[in-house]
Amino acid sequence: MxxxxxKNKEQLLxxxxxxxxxxxxxxxxRVREQYKLFRSFxxxxxxxxxxxxxxxxxxxxxxxxxxxxxxxxxVSHAEVLLALQVGFRSSDIMYTxxxxxxxxxxxxxxxxxxxxxxxxxxxEKFGCAFPGSRVCLRFNPEVVxxxxxxxxxxxxxxxxxxxxxxxxxxxxxxSQYGLRVVGVHEHAGSGIPETVxxxxxxxxxxxxxxxxxxxxxxxxxxxxxxxxxxxxxxKVVDYFTFGASVSAMFSSFCSSFGxxxxxxxxxxxxxxxxxxxxxxxxxxxxxxxxxRIVGVDSGFPQLIRPMFYGAYHHITNVSALIRSDVEVxxxxxxxxxxxxxxxxxKDRMISTxxxxxxxxxxxxxxxxxxxxxxxxxxxxxxxxxxxxxxGVTFVEFVRKGLSAQELIDSxxxx
Length: 414
Ligand code: LLP
Prior knowledge:
This protein is of the alpha/beta class and 414 residues long. The protein has two domains: 28-268, Alanine racemase (TIM Barrel, Alpha-Beta Barrel), CATH 3.20.20.10; 273-412, Lyase, Ornithine Decarboxylase, Chain A, domain 1 (Beta Barrel). 32% of the residues lie in helices and 23% in strands. It is built from 13 helices and 17 strands. The protein has helices at residues 9-19, 28-40, 59-67, 77-86, 102-109, 120-129, 167-177, 195-211, 239-257, 269-272, 305-309, 318-323, 404-411; strands at residues 23-27, 47-52, 71-74, 93-96, 114-117, 134-138, 180-185, 219-221, 262-265, 276-288, 291-296, 315-317, 328-334, 343-351, 358-361, 382-387, 395-399. Strands 1, 10, 11, 12, 13, 14, 15, 16 and 17 form a nine-stranded mixed beta sheet that branches. Strand 7, helix 8 (195-211) and strand 8 (219-221) form a beta-alpha-beta unit. The longest helix has 19 residues, at 239-257. The radius of gyration is 23 Å and the shape is globular. The model has no long low-confidence stretch (mean pLDDT 96). The site of ligand LLP has 21 residues, from helix 10 and helix 11.
């Protein structure tokens, strides 16, 4: 199967015409499918899934995941508030704090969500402010992995997690303030290429739990990091085999622990990346020497992954698909921002492009809009979610991007 075939090409063109471009389009049904697929990897009966909403905080996608029974991993006061406002209960939300202020700690604590704490310093302040509370402790699994250095969260180079060697100090603080450790957490990185690294992180944390005393433990959280396909021909990770293996590992861990615990994960990218597309219009074709430069009406602040991580995002010329053009040519696809690095693709073979064509940038549902900004004072795109729950009735949710004047009004705080 061609993973990047666009079966809905007419629908994409229609959306581009009706809403204009640049446009983020999300397929709600695909998010539901990904959620069900994720759950199906694991045979262990008590699996908790907390969507890492930093990947995409679109409220319609959050509601869809809420309907499916998913929970939330939030990382800021505003993320917690948004999750509550779209319908999650405080008991569905874990707040994974990192380098927070006392003010933020107080504000989030008032919302009644579980804190996942990743430094001795914050644990001490939390214990002092809220003695007797339930808490989750985040440890550094000391496994270094992820698709790029900037997203590796284990090992000596990272700011995340309590060092495994500090377990005694962490437990001493908990006992001083009567904190009940209901969860232990690790997250090794994002876009983890090999499941063996995920299993190494999981084993490290299970070893820690086995060697220490956690009488109140309810769950062990193994974070996110599940890969999706960005590039044709890329290796597909076999998460079914992984799921079977870690289900067996966790089951035998629970037997030796003496109690059934919940095995928890926090996928972000896996649930939403492939459900999202960024549609752009070609407005300029030019040559620079031999290079064919294709200019489009979006830029890196609207999808920063290619520039920030050198990430590959597949690009299809939707208009050429409709025309049934078969010729392909080599292009650099660039954006409308005043920086040379503002490039979505370099030396990319794409069906022959004309000005006015609509290009589809694939796998844009995770860390696309969510990492966006308004550099050069260009507003973020409109977002559309189409949800086809029963296969017949299509429900369309639109969040309109700001016009230039509305953006200026927000700058002038009007
Ligand atoms: N849990 C924790 C504690 C995390 O820090 C993250 C991601 C996740 C879960 C979800 O990871 P995922 O399943 O999405 O890999 N902007 C980067 C990714 C940054 C991930 C940050 N933490 C990118 O575009 O690749």
